[in-house]
Design brief:
The chain is of the alpha/beta class. About 35% of the residues lie in helices and about 30% in strands. It has an eight-stranded parallel barrel with strand order 1-4-5-6-7-10-11-12, surrounded by six helices. A hairpin with a 2-residue loop joins β1 and β2. It is globular and about 40 Å long.
């Protein structure tokens, strides 16, 4: 494992101004006010925050710039924003509102050159390529529009291309594991981490503290992202970090 400390990242999925959480990308329930949650996570020792407008791509809306600004004022940790980012002006607007990085998903698969444009204009570190993938009978496939539409892109070749085009990080969500709390897709994570040189963020499947440990030790992930276990108070972040430290994982306390 590298000497860099592993990151714990709460993810706020936002729909119509409130934080929501589902299972396998459906059955959403409310989890509270994004601004208040963001502030609480920043105070509890989260390393970063991810904020996704989960219906933006689907409904063709722009991410809630105003809410991004309100969250940014309340936190002092790196802040990634995604949802409905289709062109450089979207990136500019969100960075101006207070985001540190942007996460591109559907638009990047449709127009891969967008990754290079963002990296060139704002730097690779600003561009997080989010990949929603599912293990189907014929292998791992990338999905668009919040998991509604299958593409012919395979997870591993697309992640490699995203790196080549200038993405600074890959945020990999396993749709099979999302919200079911049985652990991350560690085999796929390890394959991504071992074959790419940029950081891999694990997403989808956290249910207990051991799952975070496994994402780092078995999955070789650089960061682990979770939503419901944090939103509903099942795993307090300070407690999680103490546990990981006791397991020999380098985290910032």
């Amino acid at each position: 494992m590298s000497g860099l400390s592993k990151r714990i990242i709460p993810c706020l999925d936002v729909k119509d101004g409130e934080t929501v959480k589902g299972v396998n990308f459906v059955g959403l329930r409310s989890a509270g006010d994004p601004v208040a949650l963001g502030k609480a996570y920043s105070q509890q020792g989260a390393d970063e925050l991810v904020f996704l407008d989960i219906t933006a791509s689907f409904e063709g809306r722009k991410t809630f710039t105003e809410m991004v600004g309100r969250v940014a004022l309340e936190i002092n940790i790196p802040f990634t924003v995604g949802g409905g980012i289709n062109e450089l002006s979207d990136v500019e607007r969100l960075l101006y509102a207070g985001a540190d990085k942007v996460s591109v998903n559907s638009a990047a698969i449709r127009h891969p050159e967008l990754i290079g444009q963002i990296a060139q204009r704002f730097g690779s570190q600003v561009c997080v390529c989010a990949i929603d993938a599912r293990l189907d009978s014929d292998g791992w496939h990338c999905y668009l529009k919040g998991g509604r539409e299958r593409t012919e892109r395979g997870l591993f070749e697309w992640a490699h291309e995203a790196q080549e085009r200038g993405a600074g990080e890959i945020l990999f969500t396993s749709m099979n594991h999302d919200g079911v709390k049985t652990g991350y897709a560690n085999e796929a994570l390890a394959r991504l981490s071992d074959s790419l040189s940029i950081p891999i963020i694990a997403s989808g499947g956290a249910g207990k503290k051991e799952h975070f440990r496994d994402a780092f030790t078995i999955g070789h992930a650089d960061a682990a992202l979770a939503a419901s276990v944090f939103h509903f108070g099942e795993i307090p972040i300070p407690e999680l970090k103490k546990y990981l430290k006791s397991e020999g994982i380098n985290v910032r306390l």
